[in-house]
Write a structure and sequence with these properties.
The complex is a heterodimer.
Chain A: H1 3-8, H2 14-39, H3 43-52, H4 54-63, H5 67-87, H6 93-118, H7 123-128, H8 136-155, H9 157-165, H10 167-172, H11 177-199, H12 204-216, H13 222-247, H14 251-269, H15 275-285
Chain B: E1 2-11, E2 14-24, E3 29-33, H1 40-47, E4 54-59, E5 62-63, E6 71-74, H2 88-94, H3 97-100, H4 108-120, H5 136-149, E7 154-158, H6 166-181, E8 185-189, E9 202-206, E10 210-215, H7 216-219, H8 222-229, E11 234-237, E12 243-246
Parallel strand pairs in B: 3-8, 3-9, 6-7, 7-8
Antiparallel strand pairs in B: 1-2, 1-4, 4-5, 9-10, 11-12
Helix pairs in contact in B: 2-5, 4-5, 5-6
Classes of the chains: A mainly alpha, B alpha/beta.
Amino acid sequence: MDLVQLLVDPLQYGFMQRALISALLVGTICAITGSYLIVRRLSMLGDAVSRAVMPGLAIAFLLGANIFFGAFIAGVTATGLIGAIHTNSKIKEDTAMGIVFSSFFSLGIILITKIQKDNKIDLNHFLFGNILGVSESDLITTLVISIIVIATISLIYKELLFHSFDPLGAKSVGLPVQALNLVVMSLIAATIVASMQSVGVILVIALMLGPGSTAFLLTKKLKTMMLLSVAVGAVSSTVGLYLSYYLDISSGPAVVMVSTVFFILSFLFSPRQGLLTHFLHKDQDEPSVSGSLPKSAYKP
Amino acid sequence: MLDIQNLSVRYRKNLALERASLTIQPQRIVGIIGPNGAGKSTFVKAILDLISYTGTVTYKNKPLKGQMKQVAYVPQRTAVDWDYPATVEDVVMMGRCIHIGWLRWASAKDREIVRESLVRVGMESFADRQIGELSGGQQQRVFIARALAQKADLLFFDEPFVGVDQTSETIIFQIFEELRNEHKTLLVVNHDLGEAVSHYDDILLLKNRVIAFGPRETVFNDENLALAYGGKLSRFVDSDGSTVVLS
């Protein structure tokens, strides 16, 4: 079987087509919102929110409401609670996050375990993703969320840039920083919700941080960081999906491992700050001493 | 003019600033001076509504809160993440953000203003550099270019000379004087009591309350400094006639 066949063959199945589109969308929006998490040093908050969506999902299921909507509400509520705890007591933000997300997560697991006995849902699918089981309505939800996320960020990009770089400066000129904070947190919650089906709540944070960090090491502008991050995210998702199909492994971990490979490459070989780039350049910069081996001899 | 009445700030139980009242005349460079923890940054942040305070702040007889377009603020250099993926041009363009307005993009005119501002601080050839690749003085000049791009009348600088080289310091003071001559008002937080003081028209001496405020010649004396610094100061007159103060 040649490579083209290897790539095209699985797409004869409807579930694979849906999975591929879903993977591309999720890879894209995770990369974009993840870039904000990275530059604003909110990675841990992203992690907390991703676990905190669980009870919302379960409660919505019980009420017969849209589970994506329930998860979104839970994510935003958790963010609010974290803020309320650390502003109203001497407990610091990291501890507040730990308390809130583990409580929400536990409640979510209890509720879902109870529900799954009577219904056709599987806790593992929420935790680790089941991209091959994406239904048409799931896909539409993911698509709508993706459009909202991308449109919002394109429309208020310059305000978000100012606010995420220099919150005090942004506030001093009268930008509504509280509202911008809320927008970013909502976009992050929405991204997590859209990604549940394909990577699962436990690993979505990795798909938000992996491509973004890869791009962060390679670029000097937020816009290019986001675009490169989208490329890395989309490729990781697609490759991960095929790996998941052929090797019969969970889609979430497969996608995350591919994005980790990109990160390691960027970490080692980034032109400006790669760990190995530094050594390679040092090697080249050193004037060659007469009588020593020619440089090409060192090269593999 | 900028009128400040009974400005107080509390951090939990501690009073960081107690009932500061003063009126700053336009077209002045005001040096805000005092020991560590005297509430200098707090004073500026309260005026700009960045922290909660009690009291009133009015500018041209109207609350300053509704006129933030008139204000430019340069935060302390340590408050900024210099690894942030932004170029020099990006940072200066942030000064245009509020003028461009929501759901709009920078126009050719905005880009021209950004370029002019960079030329003025001598940083135009660095426009495409990532901000972390600059020296401390260059970073400060970029922030000053951002303040210039804002075309504000009221400019606040929080410790602009910390970690700044001599060349940048000279350029910055030069720009301060040009701005003052263009009818702008500048408030500069500075813990340094050395030669820098001579560049200020007015001095505000703070130690959690207003110790003294007024023209440099009348305010900057041993008596007031002893009040602010608690007598832990020695003053020398240098060979060239300038005053050197050691805290």
